[in-house]
Write a structure and sequence with these properties.
Number of strands: 0
Structural class: mainly alpha
Number of domains: 1
Number of helices: 3
Length: 84
């Protein structure tokens, strides 16, 4: 355990941020997975829109690198366009 007051605070804030980032990453993965499953069905546009929105949010919040989010969106859209 740290002895310095600022380091104790840093440990607490890092734990909070880690929990928040874990939740965001988990939701991104879930949305992308449901979007991939919905390709070619009726709910495709809603699922893809939700996945893209979550990817953009994660990139904005700094949870995911902006180029990584762009890559995921590009691959998802490529799959959607190939199906239609």
């Amino acid at each position: 355990m740290a002895n310095i007051k600022s380091q104790k605070k840093r440990i607490k804030t890092n734990a909070k941020r880690q929990e928040r980032n874990k939740a965001v990453r988990s939701e991104v993965k879930t949305r992308v997975k449901t979007a991939k499953a919905a390709v070619g069905t009726d709910g495709e546009s809603d699922a893809v829109r939700a996945a893209v929105k979550r990817l953009d949010t994660a990139a904005t919040q700094g949870v995911m690198h902006k180029n990584a989010a762009a890559r995921h969106k590009s691959r998802l859209m490529k799959r959607v366009n190939a199906a239609s």
